[in-house]
């Protein structure tokens, strides 16, 4: 929305310098920290074209911009711009009132499609806490791309194939387990995961058991009826648990095609590679030499026993997605530890001259560390990867449930008069939001630290802080209706406080944050923009604590009506931004 503010500036400068408007628009930026200005125009490029020093051009443009009604000051090579609060309000509020969503919508991706591969857990295992990163970064990106006009396809590429299932079936048969026993288990995924652990431990140092696991893995790939039947049972039990956790997070997918779907689609890829002379045999395994592309080791596509590997499946899946969606961009939201894997198969896609090869992006991220305040044997208190309690991995569901329970206590203390069902609803929104925002506020390539007390704090850079800001604005709207039942039409001319201007500027900057978040696949850019908006809202509202005339709910109906329009715009924008990041926006807290 900054373009609404800068149009007079752009028009004046374009007319004076005889350059295209797009050139000026692309240069206007946020001023450096500490500079007393709303926006800045760096004059380096324009001065070079004109053949004058940048400071001289900045000084020359002062009079040009002031003639357009905007205050301008030259500061070296920068032309700093200042807008009166009422001017900003007059330009922005009518648009926000008619189209509340406009601050967080863009058409940059109109007509383009993106496929986003995220979450992608392994069957027969729980969603562990570390899955929060891929799941919520991917979910946020899906919504951010959608807000920028892209057609989005959300893909959950389930880990439902491979040697792990051979080991699971081998253990099932060896222990004589039954489907009735599985059905009777209180937690079927835990039942299967414990079986896998026992089978893996038993196979250590036992060549016969390891061979039995490989045999069942090969039988599964070959379509053995018993192996496929057990595999489907294991998969269905896992999916039921996954969907429960995804529902708590508000996450869904358009495609659930797992690795197994591509079982019969990998051989054509291998045959094509062999036909083009791109493969070789190394100790019985099929590999592709990537030394010419700068890789030290060849990429492995098929084991000596005929079993396929991740790179083969990813290539087959990319071919399938290209055929179905003809995507303009394909994102793979997977931890940075897998960076080499993606570089390798992306390189193979280029060797195959796939038309989509340059459209593939690995969206990597760091690990999540959880504060361990209940150390078990051999463990000490401190930050731990994935957090363990008494040696057990903390599950995502358990973290979410504990966060909701803690939030319930906080909400009950802050608002004891809330009905229980509403308190529970708010607690769920706050608890889940705290976990999600703690992840998304950080740059995705950084490691993330999670501590319940910090994430659930209603002050600071937290989800509850943003949600409380939204609820506070909703409360003001309710009280305004009681105080001014027949208010006059809002007039932006009454908005002449600097605090009001800062709220409007924070709103106006969000579209740029959204577009930059999509360009760099970095949801934290929008998260930080929302924190800036909430801070501006807080400063504006707090200014009225000592002066009743500066409050939204001031006695003067005309002023109050104008301020309420700003409250409504801020509330709608903040709520929309929370939704894009996967958080709910409570109206009471």
Protein architecture, described:
This protein is of the alpha/beta class and 589 residues long. Among the domains are: 2-83, 2-Layer Sandwich (Gyrase A, domain 2), CATH 3.30.1360.70; 163-249, no CATH class. It has 22 helices and 15 strands. The strands form five sheets. Strands 5-4-9-10 form a four-stranded parallel β-sheet. Helix 6 (131-147) links the parallel strand 4 and strand 5. Helix 12 crosses helix 13. The longest helix has 25 residues, at 225-249. The relative contact order is 0.11.
Question: Which secondary structure elements does this structure contain, and how are they paired or packed?
Answer:
Blueprint lengths: L1 H16 L3 H7 L11 E4 L1 H7 L3 H13 L4 E5 L2 E5 L2 H14 L14 E5 L13 H17 L3 E5 L7 H13 L3 H6 L3 H16 L3 H15 L3 H25 L16 H10 L3 E4 L2 E4 L10 E4 L7 H16 L3 E5 L5 H13 L8 E4 L4 E5 L9 E4 L2 E2 L2 E2 L2 H19 L5 H21 L7 E3 L1 H4 L7 H21 L14 H11 L1 H11 L3 H19 L14 H24 L9
Parallel strand pairs: 4-5, 4-9, 9-10, 11-15
Antiparallel strand pairs: 1-3, 2-3, 6-7, 7-8, 11-12, 13-14
Helix pairs in contact: 3-4, 5-19, 5-22, 6-16, 6-20, 7-9, 7-10, 10-11, 12-13, 13-14, 15-16, 18-21, 18-22, 19-21, 19-22, 20-21, 21-22
């Amino acid at each position: 929305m900054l373009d609404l503010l800068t149009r007079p500036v752009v028009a004046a400068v374009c007319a004076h310098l005889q350059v295209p408007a797009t050139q000026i628009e692309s240069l206007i930026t946020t001023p450096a920290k500490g500079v007393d200005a709303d926006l800045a125009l760096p004059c380096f490029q324009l001065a070079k074209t004109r053949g004058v020093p940048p400071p001289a051009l900045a000084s020359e443009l002062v009079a040009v911009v002031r003639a357009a009604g905007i205050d301008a000051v030259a500061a070296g090579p920068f032309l700093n711009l200042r807008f009166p609060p009422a001017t900003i309000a007059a330009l922005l509020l009518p648009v926000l009132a008619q189209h509340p969503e406009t601050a967080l919508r863009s058409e940059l991706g109109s007509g383009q499609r993106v496929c986003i591969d995220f979450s992608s857990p392994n069957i027969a295992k729980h969603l562990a806490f570390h899955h929060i990163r891929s799941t919520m970064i991917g979910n946020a990106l899906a919504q951010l791309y959608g807000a920028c006009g892209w057609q989005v396809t959300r893909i959950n590429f389930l880990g439902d194939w491979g040697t792990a299932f051979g080991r699971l079936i081998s253990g099932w048969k060896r222990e004589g387990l039954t489907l009735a026993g599985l059905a009777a288990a209180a937690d079927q995924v835990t039942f299967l995961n414990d079986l896998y652990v026992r089978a893996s431990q038993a196979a250590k140092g036992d060549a016969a058991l390891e061979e039995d696991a490989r045999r069942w893995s090969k039988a599964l790939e070959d379509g053995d009826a018993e192996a496929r039947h057990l595999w489907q049972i294991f998969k269905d039990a896992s999916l039921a648990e996954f969907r429960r956790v995804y529902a708590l997070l508000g996450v869904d997918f358009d495609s659930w095609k797992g690795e197994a779907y591509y079982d019969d689609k990998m051989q054509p890829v291998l045959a094509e590679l062999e036909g083009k002379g791109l493969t070789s045999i190394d100790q019985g395994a099929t590999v592709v030499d990537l030394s010419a592309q700068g890789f030290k080791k060849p990429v492995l596509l098929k084991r000596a026993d005929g079993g396929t590997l991740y790179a083969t499946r990813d290539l087959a899946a990319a071919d399938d997605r290209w055929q179905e969606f003809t995507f303009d961009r394909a994102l793979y939201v997977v931890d940075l530890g897998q960076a080499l894997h993606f570089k390798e198969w992306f390189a193979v896609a280029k060797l195959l001259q796939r038309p989509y090869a340059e459209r593939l992006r690995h969206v990597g991220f760091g690990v999540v560390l959880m504060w361990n305040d209940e150390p078990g044997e051999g463990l000490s208190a401190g930050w731990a990867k994935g957090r363990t309690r008494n040696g057990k991995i903390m599950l995502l569901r358990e973290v979410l449930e504990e966060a909701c329970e803690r939030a319930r206590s906080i909400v009950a203390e802050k608002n004891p008069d809330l009905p229980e069902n509403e308190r529970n609803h708010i607690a769920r929104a706050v608890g889940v939001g705290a976990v999600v925002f703690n992840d998304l506020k950080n740059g995705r390539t950084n490691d993330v630290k999670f501590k319940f007390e910090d994430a659930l704090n209603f002050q600071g850079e937290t989800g509850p802080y943003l949600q409380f800001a939204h609820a506070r604005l909703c409360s003001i709207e309710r009280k305004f209706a009681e105080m001014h039942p027949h208010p006059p039409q809002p007039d932006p001319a009454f908005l002449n406080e600097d605090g009001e201007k800062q709220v409007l500027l924070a709103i106006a900057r969000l579209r740029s944050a959204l577009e930059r978040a999509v360009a760099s696949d970095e949801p934290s850019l929008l998260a930080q923009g929302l924190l800036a908006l909430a801070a501006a809202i807080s400063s504006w509202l707090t200014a009225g604590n000592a002066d009743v005339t500066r409050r939204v709910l001031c006695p003067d109906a005309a002023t109050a009506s104008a301020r309420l329009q700003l409250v409504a715009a801020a509330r709608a924008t903040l709520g929309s931004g929370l939704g894009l990041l996967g958080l709910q926006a409570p109206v009471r807290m």
